[in-house]
TrEMBL record:
The lineage of its organism: Bacteria, Bacillati, Bacillota, Tissierellia, Tissierellales. This is Sporulation protein YqfC. It holds the Pfam family YabP. InterPro entries: Spore_YabP/YqfC (IPR022476), Spore_YqfC (IPR022477), YabP_sf (IPR038705). It comes from the Bacteria. It comes from Thermohalobacter berrensis.
Length: 92
């Protein structure tokens, strides 16, 4: 999408107090300590092993680094990852 359309959507989201994750199609990430991460609005898994999981989002790649990582649940737009999470990074 063009930058102008994104700016209009963001302004509209703020004026109407709508959630930005829905209006701008952004991922919503919830962490429970360093043991579990819940990601909504993902676009697929790029890489998966016990030390690193990379997930595609509309905002770029999300990289999760840790130990004994496993995917507990995965559905169309939601994913739950468990393990010892050491870092979460965005590559935009």
């Amino acid at each position: 999408m063009s930058k102008k359309v994104e700016e209009v959507k963001e302004s509209l989201s703020e004026m109407l107090e709508l959630p930005k994750d829905i209006v701008l199609d952004l991922p919503k990430i919830t962490m429970i300590g360093n043991l579990q991460i819940y990601i909504e609005n993902h676009k697929g898994i790029i890489e998966y092993n016990k030390q690193r999981i990379r997930i595609n989002t509309n905002n770029g790649l999300l990289r999760i680094i840790g130990k004994n990582l496993s995917i507990r649940t995965i559905v169309t737009e939601e994913i739950i990852i468990a393990g010892e999470i050491e870092s979460v990074e965005f590559d935009t």
